[in-house]
Amino acid sequence: MPTTADFLIATKWSGILTLVCAALTVLMFVFQWGVRFRFVGVTGFMGVLTVGFFALGLVPLTHTIIPGAAPFSLIYDSGASQAVISVSPKIKQSELDATLRQAASDLFSFGRLGGADEKLTIRARTIIHPEAGQSVPLYLGEVKRSLASRDDTNLAVTIYDQNFARLPQLETASRPS
Description:
38% of the residues lie in helices and 20% in strands.
């Protein structure tokens, strides 16, 4: 994965190429060459590319991997302070804790609406089928984290033990020896 230093190096070379394109464009206008207007577009595109590389060089690209986290799908995200993820009904409590922490890390964004004292609440749910043709959503836990700080050390993870008891138990088939 490229680091911020890699993007700053790309910014330098892209900036040099932008300046070369700009100089060529000026020369083309001076000598009235036919492709001069095309080079205006090339120079503009190179300028936009350089600014993009520069912006990526300023913002660190990080992805934290929490060991033991199970796969999840984002079901609902208000863009502000609430989100819902879906997990497998076969998940264990320890996996759910790690998955909620992974979701809290993945869904953090400085662009979320809310004040500095508000919290992002992420709820984990699964679907159970108590009877044929009946599906019931079952919330297994939630995590609350700060909307203002990326490195929030005060994650509040809550696991609903009573809802874990409602999950279908994994049946272990006994084999004849």
